[in-house]
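lol ok so funny story. i was supposed to be doing the assay writeup but got distracted and ended up predicting the structure for this chain instead. priorities right. anyway since i did it might as well share w the group, maybe its usefull for someone
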Amino acid sequence: MFLPLKSRWVAGTKRLKGMLLFAFGVLALACGISGLRAQIPAELTTGANSWNVQAVDFVGVDAMMTEKVNDIGYWWDDEFGQGYLLEGCQNGTAFLKVLPGGKLVFMGKLPTASVNSIWRDIKVLGHHMYVVSEAPEHGMQVFDLEALRAWNPGLGASVWAADTVLMHAGQAHNLAVNAAANHVVQLGANATTGGALVFDASNPGAPVLAGAAAEWGSFHDAHALRYEGPDVDHVGKDLLFAAGSQKL
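and the output, tada:
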């Protein structure tokens, strides 16, 4: 349900550990979107002008065993103090371990659930990863990221399997997560003519379909949150601000 706000709303953002590594550690993202296979030279001090930002490492698409990449996620393992990059690839989701100083090690991949697609989206809730794609009959992959703890460089590039795949929508364009409500929201889902599917992930390894919205057309992106702003009539409500094809 979408609720109008009587007054301005304020959406606070939370600082995530390692976000600078997340944003700049894998510069292959830009190369993948444009379809380029260019390999950035080892000398990372040249390139685009930046302010208080330094690129410290680069992993190209060849090293991730793909031709194109399109999205990126991040998981910080609190128990072991370890960060991981989750890179959306044409043929699956690549895992990269973030070493001290921001150096990256390619660990392997969770393959696509059906066929290759340049469009893949990744979100993390707790220690579970959720992946959707515009590949036909892909569904939503659910993967417990704690499985990455057992990997070591001696294993080389490994292949992981999803813990489960939910097929309520074969294709979806994007995902949004409301951590306060344990909600995972599929956006641009073909099961709702491009609308939203809301899953209750109180049991994060086995999300349950909790609701859907199809009457507002197709959604490209969204921000899901529990409202904690100045409008007392809506404090504590779970909201989804969705970017549609013509309006918010």
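Helices lie at 19-24, 28-33. The two ends are 14 Å apart (CA to CA).
back to the writeup now i swear
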